[in-house]
Structures are given as C-alpha cells and as structure tokens.
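assembly run, all chains below
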Amino acid sequence: MLQLDDVALTQDGFSLSLSAQVETGARVAVLGPSGSGKSTLLALIAGFERPDRGRILWDGVDITDDPVARRPVSILFQDGNLFPHLSVFENVALGLRPDLRLSEADVARVHDSLAQVGLAGFGDRRPATLSGGQQARVGLARLLLRDRPLALLDEPFAALDPGLRADMLAQLAALSQARGLTLIMACHDLRDAERLCDRLWLLENGARVLDLPMAALRGAPVPPILQPWL
Amino acid sequence: MAARARPLTGVHWAGAVLAALVALGVLAPLGAVLARADWPLALGPADLAAIRFTLLQAALSALVSVVLAVPVARALARRSFRGRAALVTLMGAPFLLPVIVAVLGLLAVFGRAGWLNAAVAAIGLGRIDIYGLHGVVLAHVFLNLPLVVRLILQGWQAIPSERVRLATALGFSARDMLAHFERPLLRAVLPGAFLLVFLICTTSFAVALILGGGPRATTVELAIYQAFRFDFDLGRAAALGLIQVAICLLGGALAFRAIRDQDLGPGLDRPAMVWPGDHALARFGDALAIGVAGLFLVAPMLAVLLKGLPALPDLPPQVWAAALRSIILALASTALAVMMALPIALLAARLARPGLVEGLAFLTIAVSPLVLGTGLFILIRKVADPVALALPVTGLVNALVALPFILRALVPAAMAAEATQGRLADALGLGPMARLRHAILPRLTRPLGFGAGLAAAFSMGDLGVIALFSQPGQGTLPLEMYRLMGAYRTDDAQGAAVVLMVLTLAIFWLFDRGGRLDAATR
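ok done. output:
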C-alpha cells in the first residue's frame, strides 16, 4: 500500500499538498488541468522531487528520502522513454541491467517481455524505425520487465491516436491485473481512465478535489465537475 | 524558383559585388605570393624544421587542450556552485584577450621572475623555463582550453533532460552514464575540437614570436616574418607563405565541419543538471578540475592587472599615441567588416545559401594573415610605398579575418528573419527599403553587435601584419608593447598590457551591449 502522509511541495510559486493512500493492486487515474499538479505528484512518488514536508510510505516503510532507483517504482513518461542510440532489445534490457551485461536467462526474459507486448522479432530495430504505438509498447515491455510493484504513468499514450490508445490501455489493464501491479496514471481523458483504472482522483490547483471509485460512474450520469474531462 | 517571386534588390546586388571583392581581396595576394615565390620550391633544413615545429606544437596544443577540457566541461555541466556563471563567462575571455597580453600574463605567472618560479625557488627546487616548445604549448592551451570547454559544454547541454531523467529512473550508475552518455558525447565532439585547435595553432604567430624563435621553435608564420623583416627575402617569404597555405588547406579541410558547427554565441549558462550515479570521488574530482582551471585562467589576467596598474601613471607618451592609433584602426576595420558583412549576409539569407558564407570563411582560413600581408606588400609595392600604407593594410587584413565571424553570427539571424518577418512583410506588400528597415534589420542588431564586438576586439589585439610593415612612429598598441618587451622595459610593457586588455574588453562590451540595448527597445 502506498501512503502519502501530509505531503507538500512548493515550487516556482505553485504548491501541492495531499494526504492519500492507494491500496495494493489498485489502479488510480489522476485527472486535472495542466498545472494542477499531476506531474509533480508522480515526480514526488518516483523521487525526482523531495517534499518540503510529509512522508511517503510503501507497505509501511518510509521511502521519502530514498533515491529514485531504489524505490519500488517504475515509471513511463509521455515521451523520452527510449534511448535513440540503443536497439529495442537493449532499451528493454536496461530495465534489468543498466550496464547491459546480460546472462542467458536475462536475454530470455527480455525476449519474453517483448513478446508479451507483441513485439517479438523487433529486438534489433532502432526506436526511430518504429511507429509511435510500437515505441510506447517498448516502454511498456521494460516496465513489465523491471517488475516493480508500483507503476507510474505520466500521460503515457497521449501522443497516440484514440484507437491505438484504447488498445494499449486494454493491454496494460490485462498485464497489470495478471501481475497485481499497483498503478497510478496521470491523464486528461475520463474515457481513458475508465479503460484502465478502478479509482479516480481529480486535482485542481495542487489539491485533490475528488476521489471516488470508477464503479460509481458506471451507469450514472457524469457529475458536472467531470464534464470537461470527457 | 521561389527567389523569382521576390526579386533581388540593390542591397543584395551589393552583397554579391562585395562577396566577389572579398574573394578577390584574398585571391589576388595569394596570386602575388604564388608568382613571387622562388620556384622550384627548395626547402632548406630551417624550413623543414619550421614545418615540423608548426605541426608538432599544433598537435600537442590541441591534444593537451582537449584532454584538460574534458574534466572541466564535465564539472561545469553537472555542478552548481557560487560563481559558476562567472566562470562560464570567463571562459569567453581568452578568445577576446589580445594574444600578447595573454603571453605577458603567462610570463608573469610561469616566467623566469614569475610567481610560480618564486614559489618553486622558495621550496628549493630548480627553475621552470617557459621559452621554447612547452612555453608555446602552454600559451596555446591557455588561449584554446576555454574554447574546447565551451564546445564540450554545448554537447553536454544538448543532452535532453528527459533522457537523464530516464537514466535516473532506471538507476544508472556512474559507469552506465559513462557508457551511454559521456563516451558517445565525447566521441562526437572531441575530434572536431582537436582539429579546430590544431588549425588555429598552425597559424600561430604572436605566441611563437615571443615564446618561440630560434631554429628549434619557429613556426612557418614566424619564418615568413623573419624572411620578410630580417632578410628582406621576398621570394623565400612567399615560398614559406605557400607552405603555410598548404598547411591551412589541410587543417581547414579536416576541421571544416567543426568550424561550421561551432556556435560562437553566448548562452551557455543553462543550470547544471542532476547527474545520476554521483559519488564523493566524482564531487572531489569536479571541484579539483574547476579549481585548477579557474586558477589557470584567472592568474595570468590577475598578474597583468596587479603588475601593470602601478606602472600606468608613468607610461611613456608613445604608448598612449599607439593606443589612440589602435582604437581608430579597430573602429575603421570593424566598420569595413560590418559594411561588407551585412549585404553579404542579406544575400546569403535571401538565396538561402549559407554555403556562400562558408566558402568565404574557408578562403580567409586558407590564406593566413601573414600570407595576406606578404601578398599585399608585393602588390602594393608596384604602385606605392607599402610601409606608408601599413595601417590601412593592417585594417583591411583585420577586416577580412574578422569577416567570417561576423557572417557566422549574422547569417542564421538573417535567415530566420527572412523566413518569418520577411514573409509577413511580403504579404503586406512592403517595399524593399521598408522591408529591410522594419522586417529584417531589427532582428539583426544583436548578432551584429556581437560580431562587430568580436571584430573590434580582434583588430585591437592583433599583432600580425602590423609587425611585417611597420616602422617606428606608426605602431599599434600591441606592437608598441612588443617593442617595450624587446627593450626589457618590463614595467612599461606591463602598464601597456593593462591599457590594451581594458581597451579590448571594453570595445567588445560596448558593441555587444549596443546591439542588445537596441534589440531590447523593440
């Protein structure tokens, strides 16, 4: 379980403050306008930013001061998930060993992960030769391979067209369910959130103004506060 | 063709004529040198030694500059500390500093009676001698290390921060960062940087004039000067000139890409980036690199100031007369360079042919200042007394040498202005003059100020052609300083160095500032 215990950060005149918890295996969608604090929230959890006050706990252990790489977290950005000078295989393998010294078992795991996202046989290609959807799936393959219990996604498929995006979200939902991943995704489309997540947070001006289970929205009229996010 | 729709106007034709004149201004002296050289080219042992020394010192200078620049650039890229911005700015100073001032500063620190020898003597060790090969290399490293640091820093700052963020997320160690970031970066930047410094050092004159000399430490440029000035053997000077052209052509061809991609502009003060895999040893190494490099760069300039300031009140009047001549020469040569550069830049931008500019740049690189001076002397001698024309010839050569730098600053801005404001002006139907005044020129004031500042600083500090021609009573400040040094009037030379340093930096600052002020009001 992830706990944000009275966490606050002020940066360039913008401040975010939040207390929240996310059950293990939950999949939370974070909605909000640009500048509402979605990315800052993910950066705090990932460890790119340190909070001014408050604590971040994972399964009861304080990880507030842990460096990025030692947190139980893997993260997928909107773009810049791949190194252009490395092959698809190497990009995924970085998730296992950044120095790329792979054992035979490691190699097999990388291939396995590529196969899981439907990219078997693409290992030797460079990222630049792939379509946007394929590039997103390479990032996903690495996320799966890293096998960290908490996945953070910062508008990961925003650059893809709607059909492809729906496809990726469905794949991610199936894979994370199978592995019991806890997942937090920043996005700006309620429909995307519904495809993947079971809980919804709405951020405004650095504060959480709404927190409800996705099930509450099914079959019911969309509340006015969420209308802009359709 | 798109150009048909927008006819060339008067200023563009002027640009074409000027570009042709510049080419002629370089090629005619080259032709004169070709015709006057002793044929067949017979290379004596002294000539071969000069060629060997030129190549050796240039290679060593480039190698040492590059090797030392790597840790300094790395430290500047990833550390924030007080004075970081000042140090980055300081990295631009040796580029502007008159070579003779830099050499005097180095002598004050590393020379016979310098600070370092005083310290070494105090602990009972032998003396350090700065003359000869290692002195020449030391001076070249002082002058070029900052340039290489800036080149590497540019590469470093071109790394997208998303990629560093990704590396952080993946837990890269220092070794992983080396493999995936630093090594590819250095592989891309260092060969060009090496060749650039090599090329610059092959035309070294002032450094070799003061710290070199003799059969074992004479560059080809210096040999031209000696053949010309001491032996008045024009045929041999011309033959050496051709050798220099061959060396420059070779170096220029090798370094051409590096020169083209070189970004002279300011703007290297992006904040330091958080670098994954950091550890205490790396922090110590970076602190050491910054400390040593800062000391190496600051100490000579500080020495010039400390030793020169007390000598200022008693400076002989000929120093002030020379200073006035230098200011007038710098202003005239800058005006000439700007008048040539502006129409040529506008033409290159309108034709969308930056290659025109690169061609001109290559010409002025291939024919070094002393070769130009020799050629002009041979040409002028047929119609007038070249010695009486020493200052105008120096101004012309300085303008030709500065031209590529101004063009490099101007052309990208002019092309950007054509692409954006120029199109708008065409759509509004502005006439050629109004278009130039309101749409194009306002965008050029900043690079023009910067380029003119460079040209003025170069001309102010130049000790090259003027040394070939001059006679007493018409010298520039750098030449006067050289004479004082030669006469062992060290106090006066140090005072003159302060005057020259302050004037050079001030004239650059005034032009650069002027361009910015004007830009800020629009």
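The helical segments of chain A are 38-46, 88-93, 104-116, 132-146, 162-179, 190-196.

The two ends of chain A are 29 Å apart (CA to CA).

not gonna interpret more than that til we talk
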